[in-house]
Amino acid sequence: MPPGQAASEPEFTVYLPSGEETCDQDAEWCVVETPEDRRRIRFHDYDEIYTVPGLYEHLFYSELKCDSPRTVASLIDDVIDSRQMDPADITALDVGAGNGMVAEQLAEIGVGSVVGVDILPEAGEAAARDRPGVYDDYRVVDLTHVSEADDEFFASAGFNCMTSVAALGFGDIPPRAFAQAYNYVEDKGLLAFTIKENFVTDSDPTGFNLLIRKMFDEGVLNEPLVEHRYRHRLAVSGDPLYYLAYVAEKVSDVPADWVAAA
Fold first, then answer.
1. What is the spatial distance between Cα 161 and Cα 182, in angstroms, rounded to a whole number?
2. C-alpha closest to that of 173 among 114, 242, 98, 229
3. Spatial distance between the Cα atoms of 34 and 37, rounded to a whole number of angstroms
4. What does the pLDDT look like over 163-203, one tens digit per residue?
5. Whether 205 contacts 175, CB under 8 Å
6. Which parts of 83-233 fold into alpha helices (H)?
7. Mean pLDDT of the chain
8. First CA to last CA across the chain, in angstroms?
9. pLDDT bracket for residue 1 (50, 70, 90)
10. Which residues, other chains included, contact 2 with Cβ-Cβ below 8 Å and sequence gap of 6+?
11. In this predicted model, what pLDDT tens digit does every residue of 197-234 receive, in sequence order?
């Protein structure tokens, strides 16, 4: 299945607001018409988007030209190649997994095993529906309140890579959840993530700037192996939305008091 293409042709029509109707990225929306109804959906209401087969791909990849999964997989591939690693030896934890776009790209570069985690049941259902088989396991878990069973599973999975693509900021994944997931990765494992460029500035309201900066400054993460600015997608206005992609090597866990405070 080509990247960004749903398993079957869906029955819906998407109406985007005119380019003059600009709004913040967090408030962008569209109108979706299906045989059953017509409704306005905010882009970050992923639970609603995932319930309509093919809508996520059509909206973000066909209409708005999202390139984040391909970009991150390519950067990971470059790092793996430069280190003469076998991608089949990579066991990745895909955080904010959604319906499997990132896992699909990781499979393309030969990653051996991918486990998905997302807080939304609709995401897990969409991944099973749209991309069956790309995940070796998929857990619907709130990473700020992990059950004992899920904690044991993640801690024993042997992750040597973690990805979080276009999922940070806007409140979708809080810093505490990110830190919790990171701690399931083995030391010397790879961390690959993307974040909107203004969320790593001093004015960042989400808390990620402070956490990521502290992880680098305190040696929890090595200095980035890759730092890459790229066009994540187009805004509804047609303007480019720029993100930063990082690949770095884990040195040690985020301390427990950092996790609690994040």
1. 9
2. 98
3. 5
4. 999 877 665 678 899 999 999 999 999 999 998 877 666 56
5. no
6. 101-108, 121-130, 148-156, 175-182, 208-217
7. 89
8. 39
9. very low
10. none
11. 776 665 655 667 788 888 999 999 998 999 999 999 99
H/E element holding 157?
none
From residue 126, alpha-carbon distances to 29, 57, 64, 83, 92 in Å are 20, 11, 20, 34, 20
Q: Is the pLDDT of residue 111 over 90?
A: yes
DSSP result, 41-102: EETT-HHHHHTSTTHHIIIIIIIS---HHHHHHHHHHHHHHHTT--GGG-EEEEET-TTSHH
Among residues 226, 256, 247, the alpha carbon closest in space to that of 90 is found at: 247
The answer to whether 170 and 195 have CB atoms below 8 angstroms apart is: no
The CB density around residue 224, as the number of other CB atoms within 10 Å, is 16
Q: Are 189 and 251 in contact (CB under 8 A)?
A: no
Q: How far apart are CA 178 and CA 191, in angstroms?
A: 11
pLDDT(64) > 60: yes
CB 244 within 8 A of CB 229: yes
Count, residues in the chain: 262
Tokens representing residue 73 in the block: 């997989």
* Closest-CA residue to 91 (of 15, 38, 154): 154
- Describe the crossing of helices 68-82 and 101-108 by its angle, rounded to 10 degrees: 30
Asked whether the whole model's pTM tops 0.70, one would answer yes
User: What are the percentages of helix, strand and coil residues in the chain, rounded to 5?
Assistant: 35, 25, 40
The label of the residue with tokens 């024993």 reads 156
Host H or E run for residue 10: none
In this prediction, residues 19-30 reach a mean pLDDT of 70
